[in-house]
Amino acid sequence: MQRLLARIRSSSLLTPWQQIDWLLLALTIALILLGGVMIRSVELHQGETDWWQHWLTGAVGLVCALIIARSHYEILIHWKWIIYGAINFSLIAVRFIGTEALGAQRWINVFGFHVQPSEFGKVGLIITLAAVLHNRSIETVTDMVKVLAIAAVPWVLVFLEPNLGTSLVFAAITMGMLYWANTNPGWLILLISPIVAAILNNVFIPAWVIWSIVMGVIGWRTLPWAFFGSIGALSINVGAGVLGHFLWGLLKDYQKMRLISFLNPDKDPLGAGYHLIQSRIAIGAGQLFGQGINKGTQTQLQFIPEQHTDFIFSAIGEELGFVGCMIVFLVFWLICLRLVMIAIKAKDNFGSLLVIGVLSMMVFQVVVNIGMNIGMAPVTGIPLPLLSYGRSALLSNMIAIGLVESVANHRPRLKF
Known about the structure:
The protein is mainly alpha-helical. Among the domains are: 21-71 and 307-399, no CATH class; 75-181. The protein has helices at residues 2-14, 22-42, 50-70, 80-97, 117-133, 141-159, 164-180, 185-203, 205-222, 226-250, 253-260, 274-285, 297-300, 312-345, 349-373, 391-409, and strands at residues 99-101, 104-110, 113-115. It has a 3-stranded antiparallel beta sheet with strand order 1-2-3, with helices on one face. Helix 2 runs antiparallel to helix 3 (50-70) and helix 4 (80-97) packs parallel to helix 6 (141-159).
């Protein structure tokens, strides 16, 4: 430990930020600035000032990211269980001293600031899983189950808040990092197969039957004790389909509508489908170049609830048009590309896994949020990274970027 600390001090003094990925940092700052502009436009006639709080939080996050980038990420290996304990403790504390809003208890009031522990829990889970996985590959089902058990504790605590959207992000992080740790892809498919089976049994029964048979074949090819693995995979998917059909029948009509409203929001235009309909109208109204900043009719007339958070992309689509949306897509794509390059060039498995965890978190949130805004996914309450308003979410994203920059800053130098 002392040797590691000495090496960290010497390397930090010699290389403050020489190898930092400035393009990644610039793209991140650009999205934060755009987010502030769009939040101001959304709240222009509401008397709110969330836009400057977004920029202020981004500035604080930028300072944190630069400090973390200069520090050596390897030290976090020795703090993994303390970090893991801290995120679980904070998630438990929410249930006792948390503040309730919008039907969920997710925030803790700290000196007048509402902190959302689940947002920081994402980064904590990434660090913990990277530290656990960095010196071992997932070679057996038992190895994978151990990792899933670690991820299950914060996942359950977040799910019970209730916070379905963030719990899905936890699952995406775990799946992405397991894949990068050489987990058999067939095992990952089998992990999510019961959910797919439950959905298919309520949508198209022949598809459920075919899916269950295919999962049995995958179990035969990938699991130990091929016969029992195949029977187990087949049975679990059949059981999940039956259970899914039973649970679906227990839901009230309005609960069902919330889950499937994105398929046909016009069935409940003033209820579950309202957000989706208004968001699609706003994005369509933007056409090619948009109606201009502060000039979007849907945005300025406040037709879309929570537009400064979950539906900020609809404001971008209306006021910046198709071109603006494509530029946002391009920036996110470049960010993900830089993350992949840094993960490949990392000097060790721990650093590579850290970056892949951040990549999994980023990709899942972007895909689900934009899918939600254009009517391709149900409303889950997942914010758009760096653009949506949310101090805890933005700060946790900047901490994650700081970890990535630390991995980039301390990768091996090219010598000629």
